[in-house]
Q: What sequence folds into this?
């Protein structure tokens, strides 16, 4: 597989986690609703069932856009019409670009497992969560979550047109926290955990549900 492109745009401003949906809305309003890669909604407001190529996140409270593959080319629409000031929940926020980073990354399966953290991972839907709750032992629950992570990694790979031919596994090494989180009047069970897998995962990429709005952020664990 040829290298994939990932563009990261970090803004020189501070927003709260609660303002992330408003930040997303401000970007969409800037480029126009017709640019569906930004909203991930097709004409008629139907959801586009594809891996989001423009993901809205925070990095140390700074707004961050993570744009793999098609998202890189789509970002020229933002820079062509962008206004330096956005309105977020009634307040105006100046957002000059702080850093602009474009990388080409080789997607591969390593011989040995690589260590990662994932934050606010929404790996379970309502049916999955009921099945998860019915498991008696934590070892069974972790195995259940590992299978969901494998599925999420495969979905991400398909989204960037990467067919993973090599066998790989996922092993959860530490479950930090599980808690209910709210987004648009819906409650989701979110997990913060460490895991290992042989699959190379780019820093700040999203796995699971709602990755376009900052859930399921993956970061490598640096070994000493």
A:
């Amino acid at each position: 597989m040829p290298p994939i492109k990932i563009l990261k745009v970090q803004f020189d401003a501070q927003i709260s986690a609660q303002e992330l949906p408003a930040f997303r809305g401000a970007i969409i309003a800037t480029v126009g609703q017709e640019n569906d890669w930004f909203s991930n909604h097709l004409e008629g407001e139907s959801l586009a069932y594809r891996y989001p190529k423009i993901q809205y996140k925070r990095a140390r409270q700074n707004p961050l856009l993570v744009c793999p593959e098609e998202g890189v080319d789509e970002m020229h629409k933002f820079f062509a019409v962008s206004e330096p000031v956005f309105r977020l929940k009634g307040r105006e926020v100046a957002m000059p670009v702080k850093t602009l980073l474009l990388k080409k990354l080789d997607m591969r399966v390593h011989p040995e497992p690589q260590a990662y953290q994932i934050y606010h991972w929404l790996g379970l839907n309502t049916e999955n969560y009921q099945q998860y709750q019915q498991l008696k032992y934590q070892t069974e629950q972790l195995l259940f979550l590992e299978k969901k992570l494998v599925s999420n990694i495969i979905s991400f790979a398909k989204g960037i047109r990467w067919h993973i031919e090599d066998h790989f596994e996922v092993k959860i090494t530490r479950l930090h926290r599980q808690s209910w989180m709210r987004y648009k009047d819906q409650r989701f069970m979110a997990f913060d955990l460490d895991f290992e897998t042989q699959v190379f995962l780019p820093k700040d990429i999203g796995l699971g549900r709602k990755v376009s709005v900052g859930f399921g952020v993956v970061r490598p664990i640096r070994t000493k």
